[in-house]
## 1
Amino acid sequence: MQGPRFPFRAALAAGLAVAALLPAARAQDTLKIGLVLPMTGQQATTGRQIDAAVKLYLAQNGATVAGRKIEVVLKDDASNPDQTRRLAQELVVNDKVVALAGFGITPSAMATAPIATQSKTPMVVMAAATSAITQASPFVVRTSFTLPQASVSIAEWAAKNGIKKAVTLVSDYAPGIDAERYFVDRFLLNGGTVPEKLRTPLRAPDFAPVLQKVRDLAPQALFVFLPSGQGAAFMKQFAERGLDKAGVRLIATGDVTDDDQLADMGDVALGVVTSHHYSAAHKSPANQKFVEAFRKANNGLRPNFMAVGGYDGMRVIVEGLKASKGAGGEALLAAMKGQIFESPRGPVLIDAQTRDIVQDIYIRKVEKVDGQLYNVEFDVQKGVKDPGKAR
Ligand code: PHB
């Protein structure tokens, strides 16, 4: 019975040869996602939060689509837009990523948009929040928020709550200019006055001179937008200059009372009213589960709104890839448009026309919950589209 054994052995050997090749074939077959984030420098908390959320989403939902492994290739752009563009180009050309994702600040997203257009690579903006970003390329999909979304709601709240005179203070770049414009327009429309519009530079801002001006102007309220990561330094100066004691009411977009830093801001933050799309204190089973899992995986770190942008962005990509059966380009883009789901922030929709996120905007007040500062939601505007698209 020698005969039959030989073909069996040959088949076995051939099988082994194929098996030996398999790891290489599989490696080629991975679905790569290029994640470009500021992991160092001024915006590093954004990078840390989003990276952790992307990892959590994949750990919870499996990292395989259509039999192919999803591989996230993380690159640090240190929020330098030239670096973002260069890294995105490499990810598209060398790594052949099916999607680009991340983008901690607007200039990074804007610098990368032409690459998404030229290479037809879907680009999921998980952090940056200037209205115009989605118009910079038909391949941009956003899972963060827009400054007009957040700023109009707090202007409405201020006007309805007896505030007639407000000064604005924003970071002097695109999202700050969006915040200033949409806050001021709505506040004036409701009969308010704005005696001064102040701005601070994005890099290494010094709040002392502008806060002195606010003191001199003595408005009822100061409206503030600063990018995630600058809130704690601002609050410290606000208290040191005695503005809280001088009766200037602080109102802001939720970027200022950022959950990443809020617990360490101290009592000066108590009572600050903000509007935003996400609070770690949002009361829903989905959010409770998200916050607990995020903390467990990250040494107790509280997720902020950047983390939710990353978590939902990963959801949009993975569900898109499932629908496109692993294809990238136009097929993946089409499968991202119109997705409806329950995020830890509440119900959301990726508007198929604008590719921007439609979501609830909450009015929140900083309060102590179990001895820790949180943004406690007390009012909501449902299903808010980016007001910036209407102009
Ligand atoms: C932005 O650059 O678009 C940006 C960054 C941080 C924020 C909001 C917007 O908190």
## 2
Amino acid sequence: MKPIVLLGATGSIGRQTRDVAARQGWEIVGLAARSASDELLVAANEFPEAVVVVADPLDNGRSHFETVLGDRVQFGDDAVEDLASRRGVVVVNGIVGAVGLQASVAALEAGNRLALANKETLVAGGPVVLEAARRGGGEIVPIDSEHSALWQCLVGERRSDVRRLILTASGGPFRSRTRSELENVTVAEALNHPTWSMGPRITIDSATLANKALEVIEAHYLFNVPYDAIDVVVHPESIVHSMVEYADGAIIAELGAPDMRLPIQYALAYPERAFVPPDPFDFTAQPLTFHEPDTDTFRCLALGYAAGRIGGSATAVLNAADEVAVAAFLEQRIGFLEIADVIDAALETVEHGPVTTIADVVAYDHEARRVAGEWIAGRG
Ligand code: MG
């Protein structure tokens, strides 16, 4: 096991990665987070050898951190990038949002394995990231449960034999609701995810199916499979994490209890499987059910396919507009169904083009945020 650099150390993925590392006795040599929070100090105490990086150089907690951690703490985005580009480490990117892209590129250019939980890396900057991996010799492995499942179903198989990828979606808390029932749902209702415990943006994205849209795009880039060969099926129990159908009609699925620690440790230890005390899975506990996704009600999924097929900048625009829309929904400035309207407006308004550099991605990201912000401000 290579030493671990953990970016986004205080978020949901970050906490679970620390948990896995502590349980397996794996070394974490770098911890990065946006702000100088108490949670980051907890992480710093858990891994006393780790360098600690706070991305925001103007953070209120800066002097306190400098007093407590001394030489161990560094500040600024450059320090995050330095951490990601250390040689001979595996980099876990659990940063939320498009800011994670730069760190992903740095890790791959340094030839590192990038264990990717930051969806925006591939959704916003797919072509840039793949090129960085090619140039630096780095390797992208997924942490997201669906993509980890697809990866596990693909190991040892020929890609030319793949007929389609089938991503499962829990459907979120509003599965089977109609549009009129969704018009006035509250933030608290949307944050109440039935099976997975995650951060606020991804939880709202799960409720709108925007999360699944991002995952379809991510799967396209990760596994080099066309959009026509990527399907989504709603599976509320979240036991089947995703499946691959092959040319002969055989379908291979990866199943288990919903626990992000499994994909995290698979990404870090691959090709080995880390030992975990067995907790036998009870196949008789509940039936496993599957449904067609309702893309008329949950428009974000259809918008994801549309953006993916346009390619280039469109998925960066989708991602940025969604991030702005979710923030506005959490602040109760727009309704739940309007999240899709914001994305739609951004995809309609921002001109499409290729993305070949991080600067391209950033430019499209900013433009999409501007358009999304205008739409929200001009509403009503
Ligand atoms: Mg997922």
